[in-house]
Q: What sequence folds into this?
């Protein structure tokens, strides 16, 4: 059931987003129609300013479209109250930001545990779960470091750990490997590929054509429209990773757990 | 939806602790306001309690008639008005005293006539003296223990007097002054009794008996063209149950004496305990105004610092929202921070207020400030309201931030 591409989890109908007013008005997303099935791994590509990040923000319920509908699991989220949208963000969406966005005055483990706070979990459970998640990314010794004490790759791994800690069914990643060298990039990508293999929907914005080999579907955007939409012939999980993940032998256990929970949704 | 109060408390504590100086100064603003309120409440409470205790000592059987309408709420402009009890004319007459005495269940009714003028004995003319002309019943309606000699009574001569302990010392240099004479209004008085040292200038008779000379009503009248100029009639009932009836009967009798005019006030119970001196009320009103102003200033300080905190942490707000925090979560996060500051200010202010009240009481006053849960509740309640009132706007502002805009902000 991991990759059963039949249920549309995200449906966009004529989604439009404009910035500015009057003469300065600029359409960033122009009547976009898009259907994303459960379990897809989508890479969105395109030149700067084509609306990739805006689209991702709207998909992550951080932003609103000006026109059109956005159906998430069949429910129109554009008309929902902000509290309900917050709840969906809290329970179903994991967001990996381009510039990490760790809270600077919190330790690594507090940062990772933060999404669990808003699910109402107790402190001990939060820290345990966060610790487990950090162990998956080989950051156990860095739990009580402050974000500024980490290297770029570590910071990005913390950011991904935080996005995954609440077992989201949809993971949105805005250039998750943007600032990393290719080796670190592939470590991160392997982790996303593992998540995808467990049935999670992953939507990733990237500039790096190398990374599209992980995706099951590649969308090119130009000027707020979809220029091309190609499904890669082979499902990702059979794709051999260009470089073997350094820690693939230890990441099995927690990964299994996530599969179970993802299956419920 | 859970409000996560525990998390917010821990988070607010952390964030306040990381800006110690800023937090301390903000808390100080509230502390000063709450301290002034505590001083006012504890001291005026202490003063009220003295009178309550005095009437309780006499079994809650005391009612008092004063000229003029009932005292109004304390107002600032009372500071410039004349002080009640020293009105140049009084509407109370000897006939009123007689009517009250005839009321059933009244044990005694004593008029108090305050006279202007000074006392002289030898070369001593002490300041700050009250001359009271009254009837022997005063010793029944007011607790006046005699240190030596006897109280004026119906058989004593017109030219005899009872003096307060401190007055005796001021006049004669000793508390053993029986048989000595002083002069006032061109007449010599012989001391036949000396009161014990009382040290309670605040009482329902509005007289500091330590500095008083008590003479007979006849003598007092003779200094005032034969007219009794009565500032107060104190009534003692035979039991507390009858007090209410007596108050009603007095009201009725005195109204009848005046053909329907009510230019007098009958006080009993808690109304009697209110600080009678209008100057006292006026000072309390002034201090309350000052406290209110400083609380508003303290509240603005909280609001200011919270707005700074919100804009400093705009990005954090964006991150938290992106990770699933709702507007309510963010509102509570900041509201709890401002409440923490205002409540800390309330607690410190309460302690500081009592410190000041005790210092003031020991140096200037003859009574201790009152301790009661109402004052503690008022201090906490007011600081809670200040924290809510001035913390709400910054908190709502934080919650309304658009996550995208907030995430875009660098710092």
A:
């Amino acid at each position: 059931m991991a990759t059963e591409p039949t249920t549309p989890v995200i449906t966009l109908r004529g989604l439009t987003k404009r910035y500015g007013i009057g003469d300065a008005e600029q359409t960033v997303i122009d009547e976009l129609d898009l259907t994303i099935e459960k379990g897809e791994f989508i890479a969105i590509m395109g030149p700067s300013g084509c609306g990739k990040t805006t689209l991702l923000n709207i998909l992550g319920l951080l932003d609103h479209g000006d026109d059109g509908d956005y159906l998430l699991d069949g429910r129109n989220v554009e008309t929902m109250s902000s509290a309900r949208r917050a709840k969906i963000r809290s329970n179903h969406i994991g967001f990996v930001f381009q510039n990490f966005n760790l809270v600077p005055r919190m330790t690594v483990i507090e940062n990772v545990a933060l999404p669990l706070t808003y699910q109402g979990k107790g402190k001990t459970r939060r820290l345990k779960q966060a610790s487990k998640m950090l162990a998956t990314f080989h950051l156990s010794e860095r739990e009580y470091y402050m974000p500024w004490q980490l290297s770029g790759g570590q910071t990005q791994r913390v950011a991904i750990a935080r996005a995954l800690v609440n077992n989201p069914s949809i993971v949105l990643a805005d250039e998750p490997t943007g600032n990393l060298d290719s080796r670190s990039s592939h470590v991160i990508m392997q982790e996303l590929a593992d998540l995808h293999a467990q049935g999670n929907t992953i939507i990733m914005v990237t500039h790096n054509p190398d990374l599209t080999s992980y995706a099951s579907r590649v969308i090119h955007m130009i000027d707020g429209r979809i220029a091309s939409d190609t499904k890669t012939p082979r499902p990702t999980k059979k794709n051999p990773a260009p470089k073997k993940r350094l820690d693939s032998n230890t990441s099995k256990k927690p990964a299994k757990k996530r599969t179970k929970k993802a299956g419920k949704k | 939806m859970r409000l996560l109060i525990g998390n917010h408390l821990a988070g607010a504590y952390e964030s306040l602790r990381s800006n110690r100086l800023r937090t301390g100064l903000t808390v100080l603003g509230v502390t000063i306001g709450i301290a002034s309120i505590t001083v006012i409440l504890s001291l005026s409470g202490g003063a009220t309690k003295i009178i309550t205790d005095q009437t309780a000592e006499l079994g809650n059987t005391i009612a008092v008639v004063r000229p003029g309408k009932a005292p109004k709420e304390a107002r600032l402009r009372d500071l410039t008005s004349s002080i009640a009890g020293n009105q140049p004319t009084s509407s109370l007459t000897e006939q009123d005293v007689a009517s009250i005495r005839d009321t059933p269940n009244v044990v005694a009714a004593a008029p108090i006539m305050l006279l202007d003028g000074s006392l002289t004995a030898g070369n001593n003319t002490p300041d700050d003296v009250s001359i009271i002309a009254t009837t022997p019943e005063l010793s029944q309606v007011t607790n006046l223990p005699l240190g030596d000699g006897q109280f004026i009574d119906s058989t004593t001569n017109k030219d005899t007097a009872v003096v307060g302990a401190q007055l005796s010392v001021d006049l004669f240099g000793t508390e053993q002054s029986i048989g000595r004479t002083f002069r006032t209004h061109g007449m010599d008085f012989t001391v036949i009794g000396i009161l014990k040292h009382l040290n309670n200038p605040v009482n329902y008779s509005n007289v500091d008996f330590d500095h008083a000379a008590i003479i007979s009503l006849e003598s007092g009248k003779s200094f005032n063209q034969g007219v009794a100029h009565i500032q107060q009639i104190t009534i003692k009932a035979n039991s507390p149950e009858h007090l209410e009836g007596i108050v009603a009967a007095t009201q009725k009798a005195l109204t009848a004496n005046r053909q329907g005019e009510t230019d007098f006030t009958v006080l009993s119970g808690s109304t009697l305990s209110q600080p009678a001196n209008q100057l006292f009320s006026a000072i309390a009103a002034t201090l309350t105004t000052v406290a209110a102003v400083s609380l508003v200033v303290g509240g603005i300080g909280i609001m200011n610092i919270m707005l700074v905190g919100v804009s400093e942490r705009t990005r954090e707000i964006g991150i938290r929202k992106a990770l699933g925090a709702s507007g309510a979560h963010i509102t509570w996060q900041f509201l709890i921070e401002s409440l923490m500051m205002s409540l800390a200010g309330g607690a410190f202010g309460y302690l500081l207020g009592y410190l000041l009240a005790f210092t003031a009481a020991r140096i200037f006053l003859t009574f201790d400030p009152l301790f009661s849960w109402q004052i503690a509740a008022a201090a906490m309640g007011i600081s809670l309201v200040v924290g809510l009132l001035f913390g709400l706007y910054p908190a709502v502002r934080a919650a309304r931030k658009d996550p995208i805009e907030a995430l875009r902000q660098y710092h």
The longest strand of chain B covers residues 106-115. The two ends of chain B are 32 Å apart (CA to CA). Chain B has two domains: 5-51+280-408, 92-262.
